[in-house]
Design brief:
By secondary structure, this protein is α+β, with helices and mostly antiparallel strands. The protein is built from twelve helices and 14 strands. It folds into three domains: about 130 residues, Beta Polymerase, domain 2, CATH 3.30.460; about 90 residues, no CATH class; about 110 residues, no CATH class. A five-stranded mixed β-sheet has the order 3-4-2-1-5. A five-stranded antiparallel β-sheet has the order 9-6-14-11-10, with no helix packed on it. Strand 7 and strand 8 form a beta hairpin.
Length: about 375
């Protein structure tokens, strides 16, 4: 199921994110969220049970009603807020959604301390995480397998002053170094322009060793990596054993991880909102202000629920200004961390005194879910 197909089954759709919170700026993206219905028989299938659908940038996301209800009972902040959206961001709703709204307070429980507080902590970690892509740009060149290959060659002539092998291609009767530096792997990239080229070699598995291969220079060699760059192994005859050239070490796992990280980074670059990252890329800010703004929004929302019994989606006054100032990077990171810690203490204190139930009312929510799904017709 895609976005277009899900839209035909929608019972609710709204503009979410900063436009709902009131924290949007001129460069803010517009996020859409919605809930769609599927008949009860859909969940009898053993394959292709649809939970949610999104577009490539995840700025359009629709949840199947059953998944929505499940997430809401667990006090998921992104889900609970959909039950309390301001009217001016609601684009569509029908009588099915109205039945959910009637019992929306049945979803509210003390679990918000852990979900809102936990999400807030996650945003703090993301705000300054050393693994953030903005701090770890990837080269334009995609990783290639050869970058993750090392050779222990059979033929070496001498070691130069830097300690590197000087490859000559001459077969030696005995190791040139005696027992001083045996079996030192050399990066393939240092050898490929000399006598050692993968397209002129065959590979055979090295017994009892992971990601290691014997390599041979044989007539009509088809190469080690072929087709879609798959490493291919060949049978080596007794006669060909004399053409042994050395040992190949190929770190397949590191290569596959590097490719995934490369794709992840460039997908992010191509789809990101560039205005969000300019200050960090210029070195003018040492944390992600948007993540930190999300942290405080979640803390404000969680505290509001514990004190008032319902989420606060639209912000105004001092809290709105504070969120905008955080988003603009007007506060030092350490000051924000100290304030966030104080708010988390307030959350814990509010949980001890609030009158909310420990968990959502699963019985009434389940009864409604059963009714909606049995009555829904395609």
């Amino acid at each position: 199921m895609n976005i277009e197909q899900a839209e035909k089954k929608l019972v609710f759709k709204c503009i979410a994110g900063s436009h709902a919170y009131g924290t949007n700026v001129p460069t803010s993206d517009t996020d859409y969220r919605g809930v769609f219905m599927l008949p009860a028989t859909h969940y009898l299938r053993l394959d292709n049970v649809v939970d949610q659908v999104s577009n490539s940038k995840n700025d359009w996301t629709y949840y199947a009603m059953r998944r929505f209800l499940h997430l809401a009972t667990n006090a998921n902040p992104n889900i609970l807020e959909l039950l309390f959206m301001p009217e001016d961001v609601i684009q569509f709703k029908n009588d099915v959604w109205d039945q959910v709204i009637v019992i929306r307070e049945k979803f509210i429980s003390k679990r918000v301390l852990f979900t809102y507080g936990g999400y807030a902590v996650a945003q703090i970690k993301k705000a300054r995480g050393q693994n953030k892509m903005v701090h770890n740009p990837q080269p334009e060149r995609k990783p290639v397998k050869e970058d993750f290959c090392w050779i222990i060659p059979l033929s070496v002539s001498e070691i130069d002053s830097s300690g590197r092998y000087d490859i000559s291609g001459k077969r030696l009767v005995s190791p040139p170094l005696g027992d001083k530096m045996p079996c030192r792997p050399i990066p393939y990239t240092e050898l490929k322009d000399k006598w050692f080229r993968f397209d002129q070699l065959h590979a055979a598995a090295l017994e009892h060793a992971h990601n290691m291969y014997r390599v041979y220079r044989v007539a009509d060699a088809k190469g080690i990596f072929r087709g879609d760059d798959t490493l291919c192994m060949d049978s080596i005859t007794i006669a060909q054993e004399g053409r042994f050239q050395g040992i190949l070490i190929y770190n397949r796992e590191a290569y596959e991880l590097a490719v995934r990280e490369w794709h992840k980074y460039w997908d992010w670059v191509n789809n990101r909102n560039n205005a969000r990252w300019l200050d960090q890329e210029r070195g003018q800010m040492d944390y992600d202000a948007k993540n930190m703004s999300h942290c405080f929004r979640l803390l404000y929302e969680g505290l509001h629920i514990l004190e008032n019994g319902i989420p606060k989606v639209r912000f105004e006054g001092e809290q709105l200004q504070k969120l905008k100032d955080i988003r603009a990077g007007k506060y030092p990171y350490d000051d924000l961390i100290e304030e966030a810690d104080e708010m988390r203490i307030r959350l814990d204190e509010a949980r001890m005194t609030c009158k909310l139930p420990a968990t959502a009312d699963l019985k009434e929510i389940s009864t409604l879910s059963e009714k909606l799904h049995l009555e829904w017709k395609e």
